[in-house]
Amino acid sequence: MGDAALDDLVAAVGAGDRRALARAITLVESTRADHRARAAALVDAVLPHAGRAVRVGISGPPGVGKSTFIEALGTHLTGAGHHVAVLAVDPSSRRSGGSILGDKTRMEALARDPRAFIRPSPAGTELGGVARRTREALLLCEAAGFDVVLVETVGVGQSELAVADLVDVFVLLASPSGGDDLQGIKRGIMELADLVVVTKADGDLAPAANHAAADLRRALHLLRPKHEGLDVSTLLVSSPAGIGIAEVWDEVVAIHGHLRDTDALRRLRAEQAKAWLWDELRSGLLDRFRASPAVRAELHRLEQQVVAGEVSPTAAAQRLLAADRPS
Ligand SMILES: Nc1nc2c(ncn2[C@@H]2O[C@H](COP(=O)(O)OP(=O)(O)OP(=O)(O)O)[C@@H](O)[C@H]2O)c(=O)[nH]1
Ligand SMILES: [Mg+2]
């Protein structure tokens, strides 16, 4: 693809052409060096048209009801005239179908909705690659006119941190019956939340959901607030029944409005952009380092010596860094 073709793609994405958007995201997902260069040019070109969406992270333990919640929230939003993009961050991707959104059956209505765009996570990518691709895909979705971007991630490890680093508002889903360890949520993850939502507040689970919400409110009360002047609320939903969904969205809008009005949103996004730059630098430098012939000649042997306790990690690192230094 020459420059003209790239310009065409930029224009088509900007015009809201969904197939062009899908192709653009495929380009930013590619790890081929020539594709990476073109993806960077593409993202650069759409940057002036990006930034206008409400960016929402949705996380929670496996099976808590993330996809079902996104289906309910997404259809609520498209019904109100919004254009909603759904992205997934799933670095493990070892689950059925290799994709967090492979279970499109959970998002049947949204998948058919002309105002919605659902992009499953590519399988078999490491977290750094997934985070980069999701940041770029998010900007592309904004340039294509989506005014709400929902990023789903399963809460089992580092991926929540990566997602919290690329959204404006981070919503944590909790189940009514997670056991004694606060519905399976780790404290570090709770600190990322702008809003906590207890799912499955219906039928037999309703009392347990109320109980879980009370526990979570107590626990959240002890945490330092994430943003000055913003308390973290705990709300209850039943996604299949559509109960509580509008209230969750109202709260997200209130949080987003507060962040915007206090200039915290601009600062947050500026910090995120800076962190992204450093992520790129770190991974780029590491790739270059590993590819250096002088390093490759020494790396394996020194690694073995470190493992065997013959050379200290510090000395080995210094030797490798010295080997890589251009003379
Ligand atoms: N009763 C009830 N069931 C729900 C609710 N939300 C989700 N479920 C059910 O909980 C199960 C898991 O829902 P999912 O939406 O797939 O959960 P998830 O968090 O996306 O799961 P993973 O992507 O596998 O981590 C399904 O059987 C849903 O039907 C709810 O609000 N009420
Ligand atoms: Mg899911």
Please list the strands of the largest sheet in the order they lie side by side. Answer: 3-2-4-1-5-6-7
Distance between the termini: 37 Å
Count of discrete domains: 3
Q: Architecture of the largest domain in CATH?
A: 3-Layer(aba) Sandwich
Radius of gyration: 22 Å
Q: Count every beta strand, where a strand is a DSSP E run of 2 or more residues.
A: 7
**What small molecules does the structure contain?**
guanosine-5'-triphosphate, magnesium ion
- Helix/sheet category: alpha/beta
Characterize the main sheet. Answer: 7 strands, parallel
H/I helix tally? 13
The residue-averaged pLDDT reads 89
Task: Summarize the amount of helix as a percent range.
Answer: 40-55%
- The CATH homologous superfamily of the largest domain is termed P-loop containing nucleotide triphosphate hydrolases
CATH T-level fold name of the largest domain: Rossmann fold
CATH class of the largest domain: Alpha Beta
Query: Which runs of at least 5 residues are low in confidence (pLDDT < 50)?
Result: none
| Series of secondary-structure elements, N-terminal to C-terminal | HHHEHEHEHEHEHEHEHHHH
**General form:** globular
Q: Provide the β-strand percentage band.
A: 5-15%
Structure overview:
Strand 5, helix 8 (187-190) and strand 6 form a beta-alpha-beta unit. The protein has 327 residues and is α/β, with parallel strands linked by helices. It has 3 domains: 1-49, Up-down Bundle (Single alpha-helices involved in coiled-coils or other helix-helix interfaces), CATH 1.20.5; 50-262, P-loop containing nucleotide triphosphate hydrolases (Rossmann fold); 276-324, Orthogonal Bundle (Helix Hairpins), CATH 1.10.287. The chain has helices at residues 3-14, 18-29, 33-46, 66-79, 108-112, 127-143, 159-164, 187-190, 206-221, 245-261, 264-291, 293-307, 313-324, and strands spanning 54-60, 84-89, 116-119, 148-154, 169-174, 195-198, 233-236. Helix 1 crosses helix 2 and helix 12 packs antiparallel against helix 13 (313-324). The longest helix has 28 residues, at 264-291. The chain is globular and about 65 Å long. Bound molecules: guanosine-5'-triphosphate and magnesium ion.
